[in-house]
Amino acid sequence: MLARLQHSGEVRLPGRLHHGAHAEGQAGGLRGPRRPRARRLALRSALRGLLTAGLVSLALVGSARGHSLLLESAPAADATLATAPAQLVLRFNNRIEKSLSRVRVLDARGVAQPLVVNAAAGSADRLVATVPPLAPGAWTVLWQVLSTDGHVVSGRFEFRVGP
After folding, report:
1. Which of 8, 29, 157, 163 is 20 to 30 Å from 148 by CA-CA measure?
2. What pTM was computed for the model?
């Protein structure tokens, strides 16, 4: 069962993994010379990339966390109401400075209707305004609030009164 190689004078066992100079190129054989410096550089680059990505994502999350986001409204965005609402309620994801916030309701021509914002009504994350009688048609709500982090945030949505 021993096979003698003619060119090297080595004895090889059939079906076995052989070590030595020729084993490097064989499937399942030994690896070539190690390059620890290249591996270390690649590992450092990968870690540096992961660290940079993590820091960027933390910075983005941290900067957006304090901003007020509109969670819900009454009337709801794109709602069709049978009758005009008596009040408008906007609920945000965190506290707002009510006295420095404002809301307007515009008709289809862009004419603003007078609203009375009640700073004492509702919790600290809600803006409540008394709405005058509205005619049937499309209405646009424009809002602007001051977040407790000092940033001004604004938005808009529409609703419809009548058929």
Report:
1. 157
2. 0.59
